[in-house]
Amino acid sequence: MDDGEPTILLTNDDGIETTGFRALYDALTDVGEVIAVAPDSDQSAVGRALSNSVTVTDHELGYAVTGTPADCVVAGVESLVPDVDLVVSGCNDGANLGAYVLGRSGTVSAAVEAAFFDVPAIAVSMYVPVREDVSSEAVRSEYDAYGEATRAAAYLADHALGAGVFESADYLNVNAPMASGEYGPLDDGEHAPLAITEPSRVYQMDAVRDGAEIQLYDRIWERMADGDLPHENGTDRQAVVDGKVSVSPLTAPHTSEHHEALDALAETYPV
């Protein structure tokens, strides 16, 4: 770090030109030096997909990359921003909630990729309710709507490193409600509190066939919009429905545990 201020690599999966990305960039400049290394186009829901090579173009905020969020982290940490102290990914215009979403999300996958480089990371998303009276397009373009997400992200970026948060967590998955306004759940001048959570385990994917076509649905979003969640105190989903900023401290996936039953199978394997 230079003079105590962190060097922050900022990426996302929606693309470098999106409103949420710019809002988060602006908020983080009060914390440290921010260098953007982000996709030049929408790369939503690509998970940790990786390319063999990418093209990098100079951008007013840093660098635009013809690749995925994981590409951006690898290129950034290993080439473009080698002295990075923190990777921040977002702000996504839509929540990344639930254990099953973690591997799908490009936003979260950027944070996971950073964890494998031993670089602390924060994934930041804004919850947009799936309701008929909420225009997702209007929310995406509304700079102020991201206010709660960027406020929480800047606070965590400023304090989590020094507080030792990343001694036991590889990355933080942050999901915030929309700020006060036409669609937000908060009153003017009101801020959402932070809630430390764990990912929800509720899984309600559905598939409906119509002839040769099968439509896939994630039913949990409809239940969230109606406030009809199963009893999930302490989870990320419950927190955002309650108007709080969910912060889940997580570790990089694929940890190994000892399994006696599997050991027994290995012992009886015919050779």
From TrEMBL:
A divalent metal cation binds at D13, D14, S44, N92. Keywords: Cytoplasm, Hydrolase, Metal-binding, Nucleotide-binding. Its cofactor is a divalent metal cation. Residues 8-179 form the Survival protein SurE-like phosphatase/nucleotidase domain. It is found in: Cytoplasm. InterPro entries: SurE (IPR030048), SurE-like_Pase/nucleotidase (IPR002828), SurE-like_sf (IPR036523). Its EC number is 3.1.3.5. Signal peptide: none annotated. Binds 1 divalent metal cation per subunit. It catalyses: a ribonucleoside 5'-phosphate + H2O = a ribonucleoside + phosphate. Belongs to the SurE nucleotidase family. PANTHER family: 5'-NUCLEOTIDASE SURE, PHOSPHATASE, PUTATIVE (AFU_ORTHOLOGUE AFUA_4G01070)-RELATED. Nucleotidase that shows phosphatase activity on nucleoside 5'-monophosphates. This is 5'-nucleotidase SurE. It comes from Halapricum desulfuricans.
